[in-house]
Structure formats: C-alpha cells, structure tokens
Amino acid sequence: MNSIPSNDALDGMGPIQTPQEVTPRETTVCVVGLGYVGLPLAVGFDESGYDVIGYDVSEETVARLEDGTDTTGDLGDDAIEDGDVSFTTKPGAIAEADYVLVTVPTPIDENQDPKMDFVESAAETVGREMTPGTTVILESTVYPGATREVLVPVLEAASDLVCGEEFFVGYSPERAVPGDDEHGLENVVKIVSGQNETVSESVADLYDHVIEAGVHRAPSMEVAEAAKVVENVQRDVNIGLVNDLAMTFEAMDIDTQAVLDAAGTKWNFHDYNPGLVSGHCIPVDPYFLIHRANRAGVTPQVVESSRAVNESMPKHVADLMVKALAKADRPLADCRVLAAGLAYKADVADIRNSKVAAVVTELREFGIEVVGFDPLLDDDAIESALGIDTQERVTFEGFDGLLLGVAHEELRDLDPDAVAAELSDPPAIVDVDRTFDEGAVPDEVAYRGV
CA 278 to CA 239: how far, in whole Å? Predict the structure, then answer.
C-alpha cells in the first residue's frame, strides 16, 4: 500500500518525512459516491492509469454502471463500458484503496443549515474498512473547518486509528459543471490541500496525474474549503445584484436588458443576467459560509442579502406572468399556462432544486392551471417534482400563456411567430432566460423578459 510514512499530528507538528511519489499503476483509488461528481472522477483516474474502485450504496446505480450505462448523462456509455473501474456496493472493497475520495452530497435543511449526514455516513463506512496508511480526501462542498471537525472524528471513531499517525486526510473541492463540455475534470485547475504540508504534497501528486490544467496548493484545508464556497458565493452575489436591478427597473417600467446592454459597452462591466438561481451549488453554498460565519459571531450581510433577493425571484417571475395575462385581458381563474423548460439548468436532465417549481407554485396560488413540458425530463419526474400534468411533445394550442424556463436546445429552436399563432389570441409569454429575441416576437404578444 502506498502510505505516507509520517508521525505528523493533525495540526502538522512533529517530524515530517517525504512521502513516496504517487505512481498510478501502483496506486489504488476508491471513489465513494458515484453521482455527477464521483463518476467522472472515477473514470478520470481510471483513464490516467490508476486502479479504481467505484463504491456506491445504490444497488441500482452500480448495476447500471456494470451494464455500461452512464448514469450521469455527461460521459457517454462508451466511457463506462470501455473503462476498467470496479463498481461495487460492497464496502469491504474500500480496504484495498491507498486513497479514498469522498464525493457525497451536502445539501441544506429546511432551516438552510448544512446537512452533514451523508459525509458522516460515508466517513463511518470508510473508517470501518480502511487500513493504516490510507489517505481520505473529502471533495464534497462543506463549510470551512468541516473536514477536521466532522470527517476526522467519525473516521477515528469508526477505525480506531489516529489521524496524522495511522491515516491522513485532505480536502480537494469538486468543480464539476454538469452539461459543460468545455470545463471537465481534466481542464479545470484543481484545488488541493492536506492536514499538513506532507499530506498536501501527496494529494497534489495524486491529482496531478489526472488534471491537465494542474493543481493549486491551498495553504490549509480551511482555505480550500472556503475557496470552494466563495466560488459560488461570488456568482450568487452578482446575480443577486442584477436580479435586484431587474425588479427595480420593472417598477420603473424600464427595460432591464436594454440597461445591461448599454452599461455592458464599458470595458470593465461584468456580464451577468437576471433570472432564477437554481441548482445544487449557487443557491446552496452561500448557506455554508453563513452557517460558519454565524458560529464565529459575524454576519456576512451582502451574502445574506443576495440570497434573499434571489429567493424572491420565483414570485417576481410569477407576477410577470400575471401582468402579462392581465395585459392580454385573460381572467386568471380561467387561464391555462404551459411551463416549458423545467430543469434547473439548460440542457441538463435534472429537475432537482429547480426554481421553476416555485414559480409554478406561485401561479397556482392565483388559480392558474399549469401544465409542464421538458424535452429532457420524463413525465414521472415532472409530476413528482411539481404535482402538475404534463405533455409529451411541445404544443401550445389551448394555452393562454407560455412560461419559458431554462433554454434547452429544443426550446431555443422555437419560432416565436409559430408559438404565438398556436396560443390563445392575444397570447402572453414570460421568457425567464430570454430564449426568444424580443425583436422577433409578434407585437400582439404580451411579452415579458426577466
């Protein structure tokens, strides 16, 4: 087993010896959690020559992977079928690994506090099975300090081993972008860190064989944890600003997009657009920072304000639809609206954490009947998430209004004239992602872009 021959304590004090160089053909990596983060990671290490074990608790997921099916939809079935990853639901396989990469979900609860249950459960499983000398690297998004505070105690309790003497820990946050072919595992710089400099160098060496863009060594695990959170805090704050502006200009009857286009002619103006903030990262990660900051007795006011603004956007979008229907002289209680593009992100088949669902809920409060359509989602997923009827193909006949959510490719190809002709006359359209060129929308349409 490729171990780190060091008696370093967790705080990095004590004599530090240089670990052996990581050699893929002599190193076994186990990826715990085979979702949209873990599976590409397992495939990437496999393609780089490592002996890879892919462990997941879901028998269905592992069975499909063993059959050569890409369960994420991002890699392609050939990448799974042609690879040599050993997929398993048997935790005993973890004992074979020199490095264990934990890539489990870290959602928030109903109070917007981080839920660390999956990390704790994974740590308990890993701790029971790992052998002395193993290095455990957490990739899940967590609050600063969580690797030491949450992961390490569970690993120690489950393994009866001492961290820093008999096993080691590092943190290397995932930077997966589902549906983005240009920013895959290999071509995005990887942040790496360890409990001390020795471990950090070992973690850097491990990933350096996989990441063509290279690695960035953070000076501590806490810095790496904070950096991951801040990546998405920054985006949330910037989107919060333009969303705040969009609601402000709506009240002033000023075209927000026209304002942004004009302001964007200055060289240093940043390009952000208003819209719904959905997904597993941007609307979630800020709460990790807020949680840890509150424990330290401080309040990140800009972060909290941006979250509040972005969480108010579904109501704003619903209000735009109500105004558009009113402009078209439609009695709300008799209106039927087609909501198209329901996933959390364009060209990604995932409805979890989609804010379009919140817009649908708001519209139904007005007595508006809403029917859903998404070319990438099956009817059961839509009905389960939104509780509304669906249609199998996109058709607009019989609807008073169209709510265009995320701009999937199929929706980008729609002809505004043809859509308007099918909708009830006069039609109402609310275009969240501005899928349509407003100039191409017929004049009779009550059109609102966000």
Answer: 11
47: closest CA among 99, 84, 78, 75?
84
Residues 344/349/350/351 CA torsion (nearest 10 deg): 60
Q: If you write DSSP's letter for every residue of 331-368 in order, what string do you get?
A: -GGG-EEEEE--SSSTT----TT-THHHHHHHHHHTT-
Q: Which residues pair with 429 in a beta bridge?
A: 402, 447
- Compute CA distances 181 → 30, 73, 74, 208, whole Å: 25, 12, 8, 21
Strands (E), 264-352: 336-340
Q: What are phi and psi of 331, to 5 degrees?
A: -65, 125
CB-neighbour burial class of residue 192 (10 A; exposed 0-12, middle 13-18, buried 19+) = buried
In the residue annotation, 163 being an active-site residue is answered as: no
Euclidean distance between CA atoms 244 and 289, whole angstroms: 22
Specify the 3-state DSSP secondary structure of 390: strand
CA distance 276 to 242: 11
Cβ 173 vs Cβ 232: under 8 Å: no
This prediction's pTM: 0.90
* pLDDT tens track, the chain, 450 positions: 443 333 344 444 333 343 456 888 889 999 999 999 999 999 999 999 999 999 999 999 999 999 999 998 888 999 999 999 999 999 999 999 999 999 999 999 999 999 999 999 999 999 999 999 999 999 999 999 999 999 999 999 999 999 999 999 999 999 877 766 777 788 899 999 999 999 999 999 999 999 999 999 999 999 999 999 999 999 999 999 999 999 999 999 999 999 999 999 999 999 999 999 998 899 999 999 999 999 999 999 999 999 999 999 999 999 999 999 998 888 898 999 999 999 999 998 899 899 998 999 999 999 999 999 999 999 999 999 999 999 988 899 999 999 999 999 999 999 999 999 999 989 999 999 999 999 999 999 999 999
Assess contact for 27 and 97: CB atoms under 8 A.
no
The answer, yes or no, to whether the previous bond of 426 is cis (omega within 30 of 0) is yes
Q: Is the distance from CB of 221 to CB of 193 less than 8 angstroms?
A: yes
Exposed/middle/buried for residue 145 (C-beta within 10 Å: 0-12, 13-18, 19+)? middle
d(CA 430, CA 428): 7
Alpha-carbon distance of 127 to 134, in angstroms, equals: 10
- Distance from C-alpha of 364 to C-alpha of 335, rounded to nearest angstrom: 10
Residue 290 CB contacts under 8 Å (≥ 6 apart), including other chains: 112, 299, 300, 303, 304, 307
